[in-house]
Every structure is written in C-alpha cells, then in structure tokens.
Amino acid sequence: MIALLTGAGIALLFSLVGTPAFIKLLVRRGYGQFIRDDGPTSHHTKRGTPTMGGAVWVGSVVLAYFLTHLLMWLLNPHGGGGPTASGLLLLGLTVGMGLVGFLDDFKKISKQQSLGLTAKGKLILQGIVGISFALLALAFPDENGLTPASFHISLVRDIPWLNLAFGGTVVGAVLFVIWSNFLVTAASNGVNLTDGLDGLASGAAIMVFGAYILIGIWQRKYACSIVGTGNGTCYTVRDPLDLSILAAIMSAALVGFLWWNTKPAKIFMGDTGSLAIGAAVAGFAILTRTELLLAVIGGLFVIISLSVILQVGYFKLSGGKRIFKMAPLQHHFELKGWQETTVVVRFWILAGLFVGLGLCIFYAEWVAAL
Q1: What molecular function terms (GO) are annotated for this protein (predicted)?
Q2: Furthest-apart CA pair in the chain: how many Å?
Q3: How big is the chain by its Cα radius of gyration, in Å?
Q4: What count of other Cβ atoms lies within 10 Å of the Cβ of residue 311?
Q5: 3-state secondary structure string, 249-306?
Q6: Tell me: the pLDDT tens digits for 314-358?
Q7: In what helix (H) or strand (E) does residue 247 lie, and over which residues does it extend?
Q8: pLDDT tens-digit profile of 41-71?
C-alpha cells in the first residue's frame, strides 16, 4: 500500500508540474491542434490549442513507476519488490502505443491538417505493438510457472472451457495474438474516439484505472499462491500488486493532466495520450484475466465506438442517411444543443456507472464461488 500511494503521489506531481512546462514548449514551437471543419462550430475556438499532451502522461507514468520501485528498494533492499514482468510488459505496451500516437500527432502538426497517419498505417503500427506485447505476455513464467497472460479467454478469471490452445501451443499462441491484438486495437481506438471534448477521455479513464487498482489489490489478497486453491475463489494472476501500483500511477498522472485538460483545455492529449491510455486499459484486462469484463468497465468507450460503427454502417446501407447528427456520440448531443461541460459531466457519470457495474460483477462472482 505504501508503494501504491508513493507511486500515485509521484505521478501526480510529475504530471501537474510537467504539463504546464510542456504547454510552454509546444506554444513556442507552434504545435497546435487542428479542428475538423464538419464538427461543432463551438470547437473552432480550440484551433491552435497545444496537443500531444499525452506525452507528459506517458513520461510521468514511466518515471513514477521506476522511481517508486527504486525508493521501495532503498527502504527495503532485501524485500524483492522490484519491477515485475507484468508491470514492464504493460509499461512497454503503453509506451509503444504512445509512440504510434505521437507519429500520428506529429504528422498532423507538420502537414498543418487534422489528418495524421492513414487508417491502414495506424493499424499496422498498432498491430506491431500489440503482437509484440501478446507474444511476450506468454513468456516469463514465475516460480509457480505462471505467465503474465494465459491461453484462456477470461471474464473475472480464466474460463476453463475457453482455451485458445485447444489445438496445441502454436495454435493457441496464434489465436491469443489475434485476440490480444483485437482487444488492444479496439480499446486504443475506443479511447481515441472518446477524446473529443475537454476532459472527457481523461476523466473516464481515471475511473477505469481506479477499477484496476481495486481489482489488483483484491487479486493480491486472494492469490492462489497465498490462500491456496481449495475453495475455488483464488486468482491465478501474476504480479497483481505491481499491476495495482501501475494502475494507481496511471490514474494519478491523469488527474494531474486533467487539471490542465478540463474546459477550457490548455492542452489536448492527442493520439499520443488516447492510444496509450486505451492500450493500457486493454493490457490491464489481459494481465488481470478480466478480458470480457473490460466491455463493462470500459462501457463508455464501447458505446462511443458503437455509435461510430452504427453511423458509418447505416450511412452506407441507407444511401446517405444518418442515425445521429454526428458521430462519435458526444458530438451528437452537442449538436442537439447540450453545452460541452454538460456532455462531459453526464458522460463521466455514465463511465462511473459502468465501472461500478463491472466491479459489482467482479465481486459478485467471488461471493458466488464461496
């Protein structure tokens, strides 16, 4: 618990202090956001606002994670509490996807337009990062033979009959890579689509990471290596405590960023932040064995993504008709006359309800297994 609070405090400090310094740097270089001409007219005043703020979030997370473990080692050199395979893998996934977003943001800025990487190019780069993470997550077994990820699809824990390795290890690895890459790409794009209003994606992600703080702590308390496997309520998750520390660091770093990102935003996270945050969310789901539960915990990201899928699909099938005034969904309500702050707060409420429901499902499963 000391490491968790220490990490969160360091991340909050770095983010709070680092973001305004980064804003000054971006302003000097003229790195500002470009706004879609077909979007709400109220957004045109945001043109030129510094973007790529997600770089501060990623940097704060990396620095806080390693500094926290260094401090814990200095306090207890023989405690064995250094960085874990799960923590490093999740950190690598986050940084890797952040780099993809950075390339996208930098291309927008350098070409002075609102379009960055092509859809195909972005998917290829996301695939490289996601596949690398998936393959490495099946390696690095601990002393109990437990790897960061498993071949099973999970809800609250691995589902025994949903074993992707039914045809052998190679088949399982291929299927897991496909499954993991789907989760990472879907989540990163979901957060990216949500990042359209001041503070919306940041506030929602803070709550999602908060859920994984609690899940990690609970899984650590009832780890099979600690309580045994007798009653069937234990969790076979590698490094749950380190994952909860990393979730706290990510959540706290976002709180610091949100201080500057709330309306009127002094900086936008850009694809650098939204892709990194989405990848981290998917990584937590994979490593904590809560993959299907992510659809509930990250429910706001799901419905916003679905609004785009439905809009595009219906537009093509109907010959130009639309379900919503504009997609993603948050812009539909803006065009209906809702103030931006109203949309953000109400969507935060929805995000909180989804997170609460996900935690209820997680706990209810544990109670039912008693």
Answers
A1: transferase activity
A2: 67
A3: 20
A4: 19
A5: HHHHHHHHHHHHHCCCCCCCCHHHHHHHHHHHHHHHHHHCCCCCCHHHHCHHHHHHHH
A6: 899 888 889 999 999 999 999 999 999 999 999 999 999 999 999
A7: helix 240-261
A8: 454 445 668 889 999 999 999 999 999 999 9
